[in-house]
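Exercise: predict the fold of this chain.
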Amino acid sequence: MSTGEGRKVSFEELCMVQDLVEECLVHYMTHSQVICTLNQLRNIEPAFTATVLQDLEEQNPEFFKSYYLRLALKEQIMEFNNLLGRQAALMNQVDPRRASFPPVFNVSHMPAIPYNGSCYVSDTGIVQKMENPHLSVPTFLVSGCNNCGPSIHQGPSTCYRM
């Protein structure tokens, strides 16, 4: 979907893009990965996707605060796995008889943390119950950049007017 300059976007198109963005968020994609995925697989203009992402962030600041912490954790786990693999390779070069490690792949084994709209972690680290959750994140699969696969499946979600 190319929005083009001056083209009006229908409410259905807005909801579709929001649904696709939410699918990407379930898989802990960064903003650039979301934009890349929707551009490559659905021909959605990057500026439109960025606008939808910005609107979602403004409407759901607590969700995105937690989301960015999880993204940082995912990146740290991937970097740790990479460093561990390099260390194992170096130790095997020094004396293979003394350091026998199974191969380590640069893959995060962190399972997806389901979003629970009724709870969040406060600044003090205490789990709080939210009275009015604003974002319903669907639990279906998505593909995108970084060899995730070729298809995005649509599903129901709450759509906000921009």
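Check your answer against the key: The helical segments are 11-26, 31-42, 46-59, 61-94.
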